[in-house]
Design goal:
Keywords: Cell projection, Repeat, WD repeat
CATH class of the largest domain: Mainly Beta
Number of helices: 9
Number of strands: 21
Structural class: alpha+beta
Protein name: Cilia- and flagella-associated protein 251
InterPro entries: WD40/YVTN_repeat-like_dom_sf, WD40_repeat_dom_sf, WD40_rpt, WD_repeat_EMAP
Radius of gyration: 24 Å
Shape: globular
Organism: Phallusia mammillata
CATH superfamily of the largest domain: YVTN repeat-like/Quinoprotein amine dehydrogenase
Oligomer: single chain
Subcellular location: Cell projection, Cilium
Amino acid sequence: MSLKDEVQFHYARKSVTHCKFSHDSKYFATADAECTTSVFVYSGESGWVYLGRYRAHYEPILDMVFGVDLDSNQQRLLTLGKDRVLVEYDLALSTTDDLKLLQYSRIEQSATPLCMDWYPNITKENFLVVSNNEYKMKLLNTTTKMCRKTFLGPTFGSPVKRISVVPALDPSASCYLMAYATENKVGLQLLPLDGNPHRSISLTAHPQGVSQIACSHDGNHIFTCGGNDASIHMWSINAKAMMAVEALGGSGLEPFYGLIEGGKEGEMFAELENYFYYAQLQSQGMVTTEERNVSNKVQLDQVPALMRALGFYPSEQQIEDIINEVKFSRFVETGEHVLEIDLADFIKLYINHRPAFGLLHSEIQKAFNLLCKGTDSQNEMDLQYLTEILQKRGKTFS
């Protein structure tokens, strides 16, 4: 290997922000500051040749990954943009100067996705894991790009901006890990994801910011690259320490009780139980002389009302994601839909989907300023105008 130039390409008009090789080293892809993806292919004696470019995003590309289709063994290329769009390119049908798109999917409504990686094969369904700026991690079906599960991610100062699944050389390994980086920290997350805060740890890696993260092929080390500090750090992975931290956090629902205001003995949990059993009465009918059938489950259509009663007001898109998460939770294994949910699963569902830090003042201010744009003033509005908006737009008020 030498530093001699083998070939040069000058297709990007702005700086290159991402570079990725496919797993078989046949394809090489770049993303640039012009929101454009360029792909090159290795062609035997001709070496690396230009395949094509496509501007599929209208805002900066935040991440790019290659993968392998498990059915056809074909290479897959996906890009994730700040425009909340996940794009998959059709490498098999692309020809010179004609890079084709296979799928174009909007995966977020208001949050901004920041990074992604392929979820390991620890479930019967194949997933992409995506982290967003609301401290959430979502599992998307690799074929339909439907959001299948949402989890509370690590909450160590800033959202997760880089993720990399740690390679497991032993397919029968009982412990899978995912490395991640926030603004200035590096951490580890035990898989599968479930929202348990005791299954992740973090350390300050680069005080001035982490620019990139990578894992060694043997799964024993993590490498982080700083920005202005001009340094690269190598970290050792200790899976046993991670499992010890998880054990100290408790089992079952114990870690999740700590995320509810006041814990299991607090007023919030008592209200949650009362609302849950009231939802059972709603399903059976409030006015009836028949014997009540009290159980530990409620109908799935009662979940949105329960969420709102607890102070979380999901959008219609979020409600659809919540319903689908429960409804299809066992579909791959049994082929049947789940139409009921018990109290334990509802607690996890509520904690994973609600805002990580509640409704922030900055979010209210941002929404208020947006409404003020329709008035002559930038910081106040007439009460009649506000009432009219609440009655006619979005989820209308009576």
